[in-house]
Amino acid sequence: MTYEEMLEKLYNLKGTGLELTKILAQLGRPEKKVKCIRVGGTNGKGSTCAFLSHILIEAGYSVGLFTSPHLTEPEERIQINGQCISRQEFQIYFERVWDTIWALHGSDAESIARFFEVLVAIALLYFYEQKVDIALIEAGVGGRRDDTNVVHPLFGILTSVDLDHQEVLGNTLEAIAVEKIGIVPPGVTLLCAETKPSVLALIQRECEKQNSKLILVEFPQETKKIVSWENQRFNWNDFKKLELQMLGAYQIKNAATALSALALLEQHDFKITDSAVRQGLKQTQWPGRMELLQKNPYILLDGAKNPAGLRALKESLSQLDYANLILILGISTRKEIAEMIAEIVPIAHRVILTQAPFRGSEPSQMEAEVQKHTLRYEMVSAPEAALERALKQAQLNDLICVTGSLFLVGETRKIWQDRRFAKAGEIG
């Protein structure tokens, strides 16, 4: 099959679900042969994985990274040492996994297999055969029932617990917390960055039930606020003036989570120098998360996709220097539209409502909620046209921020990479 035919087949896999361990058994049980860390949480999973990956790479290790979702191409989800699996390799591994599924299920394969579990199998097989020293495995949704639970991690990391994917995980923080704690099996240590007392108490109880040691992330006591659009610095324990190129106040929390994981890694014989820590943090980039595309005017992409994410974005924007905020907003139909709009729209000078790809709400579905906070809005359904409209309105020191959906961010990023809107002062 061609690459395009393979993608079409992959994207259309919406079945009842495989017994993934049976598929992996036929592939040599790669999930049992790769050292890994499993990472879950509502927000911050990908950034935390990115920081930890870059530190380990700087320390000389071969590091696999499995994350979701992707912004533009599915190969982004599977990386080794910062390099995505190639299209050719991706297709080869897909065909191997698919042949195994077909051998077990025959003509029922397409009604049983699901997109995400096939990607999990591809990633684990690829990491095993490429002999990575360690793999960072980000859970897709939740943890307890997520397809990534086939691995037995050295330890787990839980970044946060907030309302998201409620149709799957439950309608309360407590119900969601129980699902997310499932990123570690009984007896395995959990490193936790959650700080809400009620949720922490529940996490503590659940860890005690399953005899899992709970370690809380050490957050920096003092930080230096962002003073430019270039970087931010913070102190952590004995480390002074650690530098991040990634913007966003919340990224300091994610970096601290990665740093707290290093002591656990050392217990498993990983050796990481101070230099590797500094260089790894400084070099980390994570597309679509407070990603600056251009100056004059500023164009910023942030994949905040739930109320907590937009709350963090709002805090980060308060530390940046710009004139007016022009917000390009697109939200999935399965999200908390009213709560998300209430978080971010009030700080915008002007709002452009657009439709995010893949289950994106139509602008008219968001209009009534936006009107509760501002009348300075317009509706432009196509993301490309929305960006063009924002650029026509923006003055040199204004900020155009695209947010509300990772799929919208990915689409906008692709538009930008096509150079349709490249202007003077461009960065990426």
Your description of this structure?
- It contains 16 helices and 17 strands.
- It has helices spanning 3-11, 20-26, 45-58, 87-105, 109-112, 115-129, 166-169, 173-181, 197-209, 250-266, 274-283, 307-317, 337-344, 363-371, 383-393, 406-417; strands spanning 36-40, 63-66, 78-80, 83-84, 134-138, 156-158, 190-192, 214-216, 223-224, 232-236, 239-244, 291-294, 298-301, 325-329, 350-353, 377-379, 399-403.
- It has two domains: 3-283, UDP-N-acetylmuramoyl-L-alanine:D-glutamate ligase, CATH 3.40.1190.10; 291-416, Mur ligase, C-terminal domain (Protein-Tyrosine Phosphatase, Chain A), CATH 3.90.190.20.
- The two termini are 34 Å apart.
- α4 packs across α6.
- α13 (337-344) links the parallel β14 (325-329) and β15 (350-353).
Summarize the structure.
The chain folds into two domains: 281 residues, UDP-N-acetylmuramoyl-L-alanine:D-glutamate ligase, CATH 3.40.1190.10; 126 residues, Protein-Tyrosine Phosphatase, Chain A, CATH 3.90.190.
What descriptive keywords fit this protein?
single chain; 428 residues; alpha/beta; UDP-N-acetylmuramoyl-L-alanine:D-glutamate ligase; Protein-Tyrosine Phosphatase, Chain A; 8-stranded mixed sheet; 6-stranded mixed sheet; 17 strands; 15% strand; globular
Name the overall outline: globular
Determine the CATH superfamily of the largest domain: Mur-like, catalytic domain
Alpha-beta classification: alpha/beta
CATH architecture of the largest domain: 3-Layer(aba) Sandwich
Largest sheet: 8 strands, mixed
Average pLDDT metric: 91
The tally of helices reads: 16
Strand content: 15-25%
Distance between the termini: 34 Å
User: What proportion of the residues is helical, as a percent range?
Assistant: 40-55%
Radius of gyration: 21 Å
Give the tally of β-strands. 17
Low-confidence stretches: none
Number of domains: 2
Text of the CATH class of the largest domain: Alpha Beta
For this structure, the CATH topology of the largest domain is UDP-N-acetylmuramoyl-L-alanine:D-glutamate ligase
Strand order of the largest sheet: 4-3-2-5-1-6-7-8
